[in-house]
């Protein structure tokens, strides 16, 4: 039987925020089980540390420079019709997406889904897809309190009979507080994480007896800021044991692109294209809440792990676990005050570029445990198609990770690439990561960054202008050029002389 594929994603989850990484405060037995009984990619990276570009890379198997959704606030038109779910549909799979999508700009989401500027309230009662190549789809929007619940999640809240608007400040104030931190009053059973797990479990039950294989994407919103978490998950975290990250070192951005200094001061000047820059920020307002922010994050991750555990139990109870490949990842990380910055985006640090990537399939892949093999989220569509026995379509990029997952190879690539283009014209950054080093180049300046990730994993020493590192920099620049040639998608075969 062709395997089922369950893709589970979150939003803004750091690679080290798992208890199997030894990080105090995080209690994630279900993630740890995946890491222990499957494969834990300790060197996994996002193709872009911004939501929409990475999610479109998951949908299409292409880098942002190829699929066109290079930043948030961008809606690609025409929207791609060859997507991972559409290819799987054609190969006989049933496909579904539940939860966060964010393939287009936030203000376009409901219209993009429904085809109507303002879909009527009862539209979502009968509409469940298709969308973006998925045959079945249930949607929500926003992050924690940054939300006026819409679509299917709103119907779920309305059916609860409770006054759910009390938990979403935008109903009262028109905007939310970016710096609200701590416990959130919403009951955990009405939280978005519970809803995504609930509709996913319903899907698994409905398809338990099918001979048709399925591909299901369960897409969670947490642990994205604002840093708020429902009880009892918030108070269950012992904040005294949490390890905060080192803040800003005076002068540490002096030898780097001006974007670092502008992020730190939140003065983007001429780099701002008029719509702001999706990036990390220096936020001294958060400093008094540093430990509480981390406590809320740990609570969100622990709660997410619990809800994912409920999905795993459904797979076991319905007899589908042995024939299901389960993959967990996130779209990007979070700075959490490291280097004096918060958020994700332009700062080319491991904190935001590196993400968790876990693969598990008791009947499909061996227990590899932690691997240092390089991987990228853009590799997942090609990998899924391999397990499904489907030929990749022309235009697909990324690398097939299946030889790693099957235990046939220790690595399949010697470098990975990260693109960052937060604005259309004012900033373009590309990062090449190897087993030992990181190279960062910019389109519009000769400035750059070079780090030894073995001796300087937190990237405090920029070797770009170091004479002793000149040969290393030149070699990595040549590798970057070859990488860009290698990732060109497959072209049609040549069949004649002229």
Report on this structure.
The protein has a single domain, classed as Alkaline Phosphatase, subunit A, CATH 3.40.720.10. The strands form 3 sheets. It has an 8-stranded mixed sheet, sandwiched between helices. Strands 11-12-13-14 form a 4-stranded antiparallel sheet, with helices on one face. It has helices at residues 29-37, 51-60, 64-67, 84-90, 109-114, 123-126, 151-159, 170-173, 192-206, 258-265, 290-317, 350-353, 380-388, 402-405, 470-486; strands at residues 4-10, 39-45, 94-99, 136-139, 182-184, 214-219, 228-230, 324-330, 357-360, 369-376, 415-420, 429-434, 437-442, 448-452. It is of the alpha/beta class and 498 residues long. The longest helix is centred in the middle third of the chain and has 28 residues, at 290-317.
Shape designation:
globular
Ends: how far apart? 44 Å
Relative strand content: 15-25%
By CATH reckoning, the class would read: Alpha Beta
Mean pLDDT: 95
**Do you know the CATH architecture?**
3-Layer(aba) Sandwich
CATH homologous superfamily assignment: Alkaline Phosphatase, subunit A
Order of helices and strands: EHEHHHEHHEHHEHEEHHEHEEHHEEEEH
Q: Largest beta sheet, briefly?
A: 8 strands, mixed
Fraction in helix? 25-40%
| Strands in their spatial order, largest beta sheet | 4-3-6-1-8-9-2-10
The tally of domains stands at 1
Taking pLDDT < 50 over at least 5 consecutive residues as the criterion, the unreliable ranges are: none
The whole-angstrom Rg is: 22 Å
Content-based structural category? alpha/beta
Q: What's the total count of β strands?
A: 14
The total count of helices amounts to: 15
CATH topology: Alkaline Phosphatase, subunit A
């Amino acid at each position: 039987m062709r395997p089922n594929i369950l893709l589970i994603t979150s939003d803004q989850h750091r690679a080290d925020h798992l208890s199997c990484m030894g990080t105090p405060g995080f209690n994630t037995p279900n993630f740890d089980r995946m890491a222990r009984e499957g494969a834990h990619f300790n060197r996994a990276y996002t193709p872009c540390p911004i939501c929409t570009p990475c999610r479109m890379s998951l949908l299409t198997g292409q880098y942002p420079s190829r699929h066109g959704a290079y930043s948030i606030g961008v809606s690609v038109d025409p929207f791609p019709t060859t997507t991972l779910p559409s290819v799987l549909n054609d190969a006989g799979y049933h496909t579904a997406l539940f939860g966060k999508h964010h393939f287009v700009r936030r203000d376009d989401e409901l219209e993009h889904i429904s085809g109507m500027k303002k879909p009527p309230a009862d539209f979502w009662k009968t509409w469940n897809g298709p969308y973006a190549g998925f045959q079945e789809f249930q949607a929500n929007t926003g992050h924690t309190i940054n939300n006026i619940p819409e679509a299917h999640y709103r119907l779920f809240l309305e059916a609860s009979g409770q006054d759910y608007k009390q938990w979403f400040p935008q109903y009262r104030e028109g905007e939310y507080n970016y710096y609200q931190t701590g416990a959130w009053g919403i009951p955990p059973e009405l939280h978005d994480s519970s809803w995504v797990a609930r509709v996913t479990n319903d899907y698994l039950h409905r398809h338990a007896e099918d001979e048709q294989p399925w591909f299901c994407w369960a897409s969670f919103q947490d642990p994205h800021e604002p840093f708020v978490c429902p009880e009892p998950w918030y108070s269950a975290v012992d904040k005294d044991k949490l390890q905060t990250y080192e803040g800003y070192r005076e002068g540490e951005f002096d030898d780097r692109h001006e974007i670092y200094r502008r992020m730190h001061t939140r003065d983007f000047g001429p780099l701002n294209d008029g719509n702001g820059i999706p990036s990390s920020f220096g936020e001294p307002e958060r400093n008094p809440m540093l430990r509480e922010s981390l406590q809320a994050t740990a609570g969100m991750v622990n709660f997410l792990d619990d809800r994912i555990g409920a999905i795993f139990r459904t797979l076991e109870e319905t007899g589908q676990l042995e024939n299901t490949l389960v993959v967990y990842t996130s779209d990007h990380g979070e700075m959490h005050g490291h280097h004096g910055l918060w958020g994700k985006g332009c700062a080319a640090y491991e904190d935001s570029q590196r993400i968790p990537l876990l693969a598990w399939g008791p009947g499909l892949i061996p227990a590899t445990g932690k691997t240092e093999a390089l991987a990228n989220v853009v590799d997942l569509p090609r990998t899924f198609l391999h397990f499904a026995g489907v030929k990749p379509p022309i235009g697909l990029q990324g690398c097939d990770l299946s030889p790693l997952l099957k235990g046939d190879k220790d690595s399949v690539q010697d470098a990975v690439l990260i693109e960052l283009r937060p604005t259309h014209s004012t900033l373009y950054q590309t990062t090449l990561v190897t087993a030992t080093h990181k190279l960062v180049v910019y389109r519009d300046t000769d400035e750059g960054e070079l780090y030894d990730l073995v001796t300087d994993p937190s990237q405090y020493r920029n070797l770009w202008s170091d004479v002793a590192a000149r040969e290393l920099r030149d070699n990595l620049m040549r590798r970057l050029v070859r990488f860009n040639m290698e990732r060109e998608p497959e072209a049609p075969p040549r069949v004649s002389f002229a």
